[in-house]
Amino acid sequence: MKKTNIFLSMICFGLLAVISGCGTGKPEKVTEIPVTTQSKEALNSLRQGLALSDLGDYQKSRGLFIKAIEQDPKLSIAYLFKATTDVSPKEASDDVEKAKAGIEGASEWEKLYCDYTVTFFTSDWNKRLEIAKKIAAAYPDAARPQVDLGNTYRSANDVANERACFTKAVELDPKWVGGYVGLLNSYLFSEPKDFKKAEGNALKMVELAPASPGAEIALGDCYRAQNNLQKARDAYSKAVDLDPAAPEAYYKKGHANSFLGNLEEARQNYSDGSKHDESIVMGGQFIAYTYLYGNDPKGAMNSLEGQLKQIEASGNKDAKTMYAKSTFLQDYAGIALFTGDVAKLKEIIGQLEPISLQMGNDVGTDAAKLSQKAGILQWKALLAASEGNFSLAGSTAEEIKSTVAPINDPLKLDGYEFALGYIALKQKKFPEAVAHFEKTQQVLISNKYWLAMAYDAAGNKDRAKKLFNEIADYNFNSVDFALVRNEVKKKMTSN
Prior knowledge:
The chain is mainly alpha-helical and 495 residues long. Helix content is 72%, strand content 0%.
């Protein structure tokens, strides 16, 4: 499926091997990461894991990255790739530290990739872009750096550059799935969207990897985006058949069933997926959302309560468990906010705050600590606005801004702008609410929904209707979408 990878062994001392022989004086093109290891077994495990990761099979790829580390504990890049599959931020941060500790003597690409990965924990987007550009320039024949560069642009909503990079990746290596994955996700989620183009890229993935559940899942996602839910479910069912141990295949089938209204079947899908999942998060989340799709927010809260009680009963306080607890509490808070249960929202924020701050401390970077603090401040600002204490809400929102000021990320003010928009909406200052919500990422359904609500309240019915239309058949599962889907569909029917 992929071109032959060119890897470096320790014997090469970080220099490019000349496969055609030293006498030609012509170096071989470098099309893949030059991996520094003396272990053929570790190299093979890493290659297999990376191929599965490219196709979205993160759990199996994780097992292979762990195997590569066991075969060569000094293989720094294996820790970096394992970090992308870890089930808690602390575990990922620890793996990056292990990679950094052994990176001396590795190839230049590996060193740069280590620096690139670190920027996700320091929230330094400018540095990430600088490194991604440097790798792409240093290895112009390799497709993977183009995908990393494209994803970097995507995280800053630079759609033109993201698509140019993904397209270049396909041109450089048409037999590698990575460029098609990038384009598929871009056309699914970045504006302007084009679901048919996304489908075309998914079909190319299926052609290149017909035995991969990840390729069928990608195709199912494209059908789901086009509101062809039955066809999506069929693709996800095929993914389950291809690999009955792939949790993502069950989860995606559950999403299709959720949107089709087959809520009991969806709950069974989610339960089946969780039996194969190392993480304890997604199955529990998605089951709770089915109650929201069934217009039963109390049922969703009860479901999350059950998950939280199980965590308490287990007595586990490791990073993986605390991450799960934080995730469930975040969802619980979102439901309480949306349904106006101010007392419950206040209670949940009180439980969430110490866990969030500890998670920031576990990662250890200033950016992680500040981001967690800003997240709690946002919840507190929304709580104050819900209570009608607009003075406190405003001052807390300003504290968000000062907290994230040192962070080098172009989207760092998203939470601040959302909080100000929500406060203004609660005060019936509709034009002001619109102005703030317009500055938030519209790829997030919560931001798009509240912007639509602000437009509607401000009398801009056409723009509100356009956004409600976009939301109505979004069909990608999240607590935000689960909360608003039925209401938005009702709005569209009444109009």
